[in-house]
Amino acid sequence: MTHREDGTIPPEGYRLEITPEAITLSASDAAGRFYGEQTLRQLRGPSAFRAAGFAPDPVPCGVVTDHPRFAWRGCLLDVARNFRTKAEVLRFIDLLAAHKLNVLHFHLTDDQGWRVQIPEFPRLTSVGGWRHGSMVGRHDGPERDGRPHGGFYTTDDLREIVAYAAQRHITVVPEIDVPGHSQAAIAAYPELGTGEPVEVWTSWGVNPRLLDPKESTVDFYRRVLDAVLEIFPSEVIAIGGDEVPGATERHAWFVDRMIEHLESRGRRALGWDEILDGKPATSAIIGSWRGEEAGVVAAKAGHDVVMCPEQHVYLDHRQADHPDEPIPVGFLRTLADFYAYEPYPADLPEDARPRILGAQAQVWTEHLDSVRRVDYAVFPRLCAFAEVVWSSGPRDFGEFSARLAEAHLPRLDALGVEYRALDGPHPWQRRPGVPGRPR
């Protein structure tokens, strides 16, 4: 294959020319070359997605000219609720790259676990990195499985993950969640809260236990963020800010101090849409998760926005109303629903459209306690989402689903992805008797 540099091609775009004599790949940057190679891999057939031992199929002749619709084509992976090993994260990055996604939003801390090593504060992982048990399914009772759960990534692990992702043109955006979703940190250092000893949380849901927004807590988290910045070169660092029951003006002040600290280090904060209540600096990017309205408000106010509304792109939400659907939580969102999602809200003013950086699918893992469960929840709906954020023009779900069944599911088979079959879960993918909480 011959590579050519062509400055007329948009960033991340490519032109792939295939004749009986030669294959020529033109691009203006390294990302475009990478995506062109992914398209060629697709054309070579499912065997090209196996780790070894394949004979590629002949590729059809023709010209493919392509570039992405959005600059931010993301997927959040929550490893705080249920830890994923380094090898599993590297595999997930490979799957994102195969779908031309370019942001991994890495949710590293929450009430149920702290997953990033901070050498200055070792108790964050020695205490905050594991819990005594977990709620099974979603209910209001006291039942827990009694099974200790934990894990964390060393700084070297994380540097490896970042480098591995960069080779695949994926930016890893870490999230350190404040001032709510912080019980794991408070369990490690009780002075961050009320001073009362607590354990890492074993429940799911919204936790009323918050950080105490005092100067010493601000100083603690500045030092945490400085350690995070040493590991992650991403311009954007996520700071959470969501689901803070009983939040005060002082909590908004605390979030503003985190935004200012990142700005002082040449970075930008990404916060969930609740931080708009405190009127943060417009340098902060807003993740519009509670719906589309906050994204419109934020864009009109001058914020850059990543659209990730729970009504449309939460991959942990249930895929069918059938009783065989395992641990049915959240909104019913089918493959067709994901394919129909439009990242530009209908009521977004034309002059605010450039503020929409793109969109992001979310993989929250309260009910995804193994890589097999992640595969089931994510695929093939992430395939539909990837096409939405990459491709422009009209969409035809019938045409997409035919392509998916005929050409792309065999690629997922070759990759070893245990996706949800189009006609429902296999017997071993069901979780009979485990309660969910549909919405």
Automatic annotation (TrEMBL):
GO BP: carbohydrate metabolic process; glycosaminoglycan metabolic process
GO CC annotation, single: membrane
Reactions catalysed, as given in the entry: Hydrolysis of terminal non-reducing N-acetyl-D-hexosamine residues in N-acetyl-beta-D-hexosaminides
A Pfam family: Glyco_hydro_20
Active-site residues per Swiss-Prot or TrEMBL entry: E243
Entries under SUPFAM superfamilies matching the protein: (Trans)glycosidases (SSF51445), beta-N-acetylhexosaminidase-like domain (SSF55545)
Ranges of residues in domain Beta-hexosaminidase bacterial type N-terminal: 5-67
One GO molecular-function entry: beta-N-acetylhexosaminidase activity
EC number: 3.2.1.52
Occurrences of domain Glycoside hydrolase family 20 catalytic (ranges): 70-392
Superkingdom in the source lineage: Bacteria
Keywords: Glycosidase, Hydrolase
Family that this chain belongs to: Belongs to the glycosyl hydrolase 20 family.
Listed name of the protein: beta-N-acetylhexosaminidase
Organism of this sequence: Amycolatopsis albispora
